[in-house]
């Protein structure tokens, strides 16, 4: 199997610990997803292919009670992602496992707050897959995610947000205003990822995202491309006037490229 590596983002959990993607790679910090811990063992020794064909979520749908669980059980795409997360977790072993249980609870809480909002749920799932890939998971984000996010947006019940989304799960359509490195230079693929100048992108609605890593779907985007931008998480316990650390998911409507990034290089209260 080809090793999937997506250094595109660090999650809200990473930000709470003041860690950048580069520090995560150096220290191999443990992040993961908690509802699938109980079934992860079945993916370690079982057949990933067979489990994928079964397309069952990592929990018993008969016992599903929360809105997010019910939404996953009633949607084959969300079910597939839930299962992919379980497989990815099963591929991670050693000292990371126990740490993953404690840090993942915040991610579960965010998914719960999505209710039945499928766009919100899929964003949490994609972020979980990206986080697991930082720890060595070989499970990729399915290529259909971009198209499906756009489809969910078109058929959403919630109204489109004007300007930047202010609440988790809110989305808007904006355009790319600029693409560069973190330092405002021309974005080019680095010869050494550990020495990357990172990636930065701005939008016509004053939105901004940044990463310490080179983000391929941003590099292949164009100025003026329309982007579906959704707010995924908001930092908590921040000093007054400092709200850095909001995390947004983005889907390029032209290329269908997907990325999940913060609006700042540091968490609120940081440097």
Describe this structure in words.
By secondary structure, the protein is an alpha+beta fold. It has 2 domains: 12-144, no CATH class; 151-262, no CATH class. 35% of the residues lie in helices and 14% in strands. It has 11 helices and 6 strands. The protein has helices at 12-16, 21-27, 40-45, 48-54, 67-73, 76-90, 96-103, 105-113, 118-134, 145-154, 216-219, and strands at residues 171-180, 199-203, 208-211, 226-233, 247-252, 258-262. Strands 3-2-1-4-5-6 form a 6-stranded antiparallel sheet. A hairpin with a 5-residue loop joins β5 (247-252) and β6 (258-262). α8 (105-113) runs antiparallel to α9 (118-134) and α9 (118-134) packs antiparallel against α10 (145-154). It is globular, with a radius of gyration of 18 Å. The termini are far apart.
Strand content: 5-15%
Terminal-residue CA separation? 40 Å
Strand segment count: 6
Cα Rg: 18 Å
Number of separate structural domains: 2
Order of helices and strands: HHHHHHHHHHEEEHEEE
Count of DSSP-assigned helices:
11
Report the structural category: alpha+beta
Strand order of the largest sheet: 3-2-1-4-5-6
What's this entry about, in short?
This protein is of the alpha+beta class and 271 residues long. It is built from eleven helices and six strands. The chain has helices spanning 12-16, 21-27, 40-45, 48-54, 67-73, 76-90, 96-103, 105-113, 118-134, 145-154, 216-219, and strands at residues 171-180, 199-203, 208-211, 226-233, 247-252, 258-262.
What is the fold's blueprint, element by element?
Blueprint: H1 12-16, H2 21-27, H3 40-45, H4 48-54, H5 67-73, H6 76-90, H7 96-103, H8 105-113, H9 118-134, H10 145-154, E1 171-180, E2 199-203, E3 208-211, H11 216-219, E4 226-233, E5 247-252, E6 258-262
Antiparallel strand pairs: 1-2, 1-4, 2-3, 4-5, 5-6
Helix pairs in contact: 6-9, 8-9, 9-10
């Amino acid at each position: 199997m080809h090793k999937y590596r997506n250094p595109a983002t660090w999650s809200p959990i990473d930000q709470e610990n003041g860690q950048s993607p580069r520090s995560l790679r150096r220290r191999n910090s443990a992040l993961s997803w908690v509802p699938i811990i109980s079934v992860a063992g079945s993916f370690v020794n079982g057949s990933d292919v067979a489990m994928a064909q079964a397309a069952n979520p990592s929990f018993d749908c008969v016992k599903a009670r929360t809105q997010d669980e019910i939404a996953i059980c009633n949607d084959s795409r969300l079910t597939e992602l839930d299962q992919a997360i379980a497989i990815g977790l099963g591929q991670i072993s050693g000292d990371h496992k126990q740490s993953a249980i404690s840090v993942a609870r915040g991610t579960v809480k965010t998914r719960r707050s999505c209710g039945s909002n499928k766009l919100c749920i899929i964003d949490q799932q994609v972020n979980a897959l990206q986080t697991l890939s930082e720890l060595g998971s070989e499970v990729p984000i399915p290529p259909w995610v971009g198209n499906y996010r756009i489809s969910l947006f078109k058929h959403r019940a919630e109204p489109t947000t004007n300007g930047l989304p202010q609440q988790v799960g809110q989305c808007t359509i904006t355009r790319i205003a600029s693409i560069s490195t973190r330092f405002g230079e021309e974005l080019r693929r680095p010869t050494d990822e550990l020495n990357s100048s990172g990636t930065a992108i701005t939008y016509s609605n004053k939105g901004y995202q940044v990463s310490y890593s080179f983000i391929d779907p941003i590099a292949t985007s164009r100025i003026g491309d329309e982007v579906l931008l959704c707010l995924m998480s908001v930092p908590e316990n921040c000093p007054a006037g400092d709200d850095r650390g909001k995390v947004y998911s983005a889907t390029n409507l032209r290329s269908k490229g997907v990325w999940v990034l913060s609006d700042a290089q540091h968490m609120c209260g940081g440097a």
